[in-house]
Specification:
- The radius of gyration is 18 Å and the shape is globular.
- The protein is built from ten helices and nine strands.
- Helix 8 runs antiparallel to helix 10.
- The chain is about 50% helix and about 10% strand.
Length: about 325
């Protein structure tokens, strides 16, 4: 990835070693499911925003307007956060990353975040909407967000209540060494996926899913979660497509790194690693093939409308 000459974002908040973000770094291991955090309330969207959502997703605006009429508005409660689907650690990992490695990764994350800002601002602007940039919080061990107190063990996550992406940089060593997904573009995919959740939040999609999940059975709720996560993978691909077209970001091998990372954290591989068997009905993020496929769809076309996983017959 050609990232070193890129713009640095001013939206990075470094809480490493301070306050609720202090303490030793945590890795990943074991087989427990990610911690579920509390539900928080979100804001509403006006008629114009609903029409913009429909334009971006290529759906009939009346469908969203119908949901507003039956559900009391596009805004309202929504899930506390979305994260990569990594199993938490059972034991604490070694002390963490050396200082130089930490600083380089923090610099890298800042560049990737800035690139997503430029890309999504342009995409939203083309539709007559304004992109509200998220903050990115670096932390170690655990962190306090508007979604509650969260351990680093759950992996990178996005909290819609404060519109912030949270990441413990020790995650990247685990991504490389434990999950066999090395490479800077694999690391960028992680950030782009979480920013994809921010895009979903701005468009009101996350809230729509949360509302539907609250009245659905477990299997249906899981399926909705899978579609939400696969859409975030697709949106990460959309970012990569436009970033490369505008700034020649990608180098040889980068695309394969991203596809491999998406596949390595599929629910089937994660379950097989942790328990030795797979339970498809319990999937919340999608299989390896599904995650790689939707990331590829976004990357190939760069078209947000192609990321409508909620109307796709095939995931």
């Amino acid at each position: 990835m050609r990232w070193r000459t890129g713009r640095r974002s001013s939206n990075v908040e470094d809480r490493r070693g301070a306050g609720a973000g202090g303490g030793a770094d945590r890795g990943y291991g074991g087989g427990r499911m990610p911690v579920r955090r509390r539900t928080v309330a979100g804001g509403g969207l006006g008629l114009l925003a609903i029409v913009v959502i429909a334009m971006l997703l290529g759906v009939d605006p009346s469908l969203l307007l119908g949901l507003v009429g039956s559900g009391g508005g596009v805004g309202g409660g929504q899930t506390g956060d979305s994260q990569m689907g990594m199993p938490p650690a059972v034991q604490q990992a070694p002390a963490g990353l050396p200082g130089g490695r930490r600083d380089e990764l923090a610099d890298f994350v800042s560049v990737v975040l800035a690139d997503t800002e430029d890309t999504w601002s342009a995409i939203f602007g083309d539709s007559g909407a304004e992109y509200r940039e998220p903050k990115l919080v670096l932390f170690t061990h655990y962190v306090q967000s508007a979604c509650g107190l969260t351990e680093a063990a759950v992996g990178p996550f996005y909290c819609p209540a404060d519109e912030k992406v949270y990441i413990d940089l020790s995650f990247y060593d685990e991504l490389k060494n434990r999950f066999n997904a090395p490479g800077d573009f694999a690391q960028a995919y992680v950030i782009a996926h979480e920013v994809g959740h921010h895009v979903q939040n701005l468009l009101g999609i996350s809230d729509q899913v949360s509302r539907a999940q609250r009245v659905a059975g477990r299997s249906e709720a899981n399926q909705l979660s899978v579609r939400l996560e696969l859409q975030a993978d697709c949106l990460a691909g959309v970012w990569a497509h436009h970033a490369h077209a505008a700034r020649n970001l990608l180098e040889a091998g980068d695309v394969q790194e991203g596809l491999n990372a998406a596949a390595q954290i599929g629910d089937d591989r994660m379950q097989r690693r942790s328990s030795g068997f797979v339970v498809p009905d319990s999937f919340t993020h999608g299989s390896s093939k599904q995650r790689a496929r939707w990331f590829r769809i976004g990357l190939a076309g760069g078209d947000v409308q192609q990321c409508n996983t909620f109307e796709a017959e095939r995931l």
